[in-house]
Amino acid sequence: MNPSAELAAVAGALLTLVVAAAWIPGVVRVFVIAQAAFWSLSYIARPLVLLAVRPQPHYGDNVPDPRLAELGYDRGIDLVLDHVVFGLWVYAALVVAYAAWARGRPPAAPALAGDPDLIPTLVTMYALGLIGRAAAVATGAVGSAGDVTSANPILSFVSILATVAALGLIVFARPARPEIAVLVVGVLLAGELAWTAVVESKTPIMGAAMAVAIRFALSGWTRVKAFGVAGIGVLGIGGFGWLQSFKTTELAKAEAALIDSDYPPGVRPFLSILRRFDLLEAATDAYFHGPGYWLTPGEVLNNAVLSLVPAQLLGTQKFQSGTAWAQDVRGASVDMSKVSVSLAEGNLNEGYVLGGYTGVLVCALFTFALLLAWAWALSSRLFPVVVLGLAVTGSSALFERGILGSMENLGKFLQAAVLAWLIHAVVTEVRRRTRQAPPRVVSPVVA
């Protein structure tokens, strides 16, 4: 099979996802289409650029992979996409089956949408989260994409509240006046875009775009809304590079311009986006490492369960799949001895390394189950469960993480859900007492 056939097989699976999603009611459609778009940038757009330009690998440019260049881009892409093709078609079959089952069934409505204490709680969480973000920036404790550990875990944890609350307000806030609604959503989007640039990660703005899509899915889609959501995602990731330029030195800008000059003018505007979608590198890692010789099924289960337990209770450092992937899996074919970084492995790539094509099947099933659980969480009557759904919306678990990485995210989100539940309880009690407080009567002054 030549590379064009491999890419055609990937494109066919992703197109099947989009077509099947059109028959799925509710918010599940949003994430299936988002998954197709995300995986298209990694598994179609980047290979097409490599095949068209055939760039020479050099330091500072992660678009060309030296391993693929050494094999020859045609043959290399052919080899590393083989397990990806299998996994995407398995996932597409699951989505098609679900679409056939869900067609005609009414989507679940968000049960907490009418809770009078929901919006005040989210506003309180957002304020606390912004304080955490500001403190992290002021103390230099802000992490960035690929960091192994957080400079200040407490501030990082508190900052999660702002992300969750911003997504919740985008989804659930319904001001009486439409112009106020537009203003609120616009301010929240601007805040998440700014945070995207600060933490050097595409995840916050992607989560915000997903929240807007969920809002529209609940209120009804139009063609304008669909193009608007797509525009938010593209402009957000594109604007990320523009915002980053304000804190980049002139020397770094000149080096980046020199690197980009190797690409045709028509490709250069998209390089900042392509560099953020690096699952093709993870697929290359998986191919060169091969199945097995990383973790046993028992170790996977043990690490996944322990990921849900706070590190303070364990009393030991938890397993970090992104770091282990960088050291053990990518380290099998790339010298990582002087690099300490956490990488996104992707569900299909992790599955292939853990158990070959059987592992790919298991990881595809896990991602699909997580997708359905996320949709159910957003419609739950329990506030902590809704918080979990919002947290998954703002994470990369459904796009570029496998079982281990997703469980690590869920572990952090469970702690955030507990804190959010406490905030909700306090806000609810304060508002109840305020409503029940008798009006003050001012006694007349007797002369």
UniProtKB/TrEMBL annotation:
Keyword Phosphoprotein: no
Protein name, UniProt field: Oligosaccharide repeat unit polymerase
Keywords of this entry: Membrane, Transmembrane, Transmembrane helix
Species classification: Bacteria, Bacillati, Actinomycetota, Actinomycetes, Mycobacteriales
Membrane-traversing stretches: 79-101, 121-142, 154-174, 180-199, 220-243, 352-375, 382-399
Statement: the UniProt record of this protein carries the keyword Membrane: yes
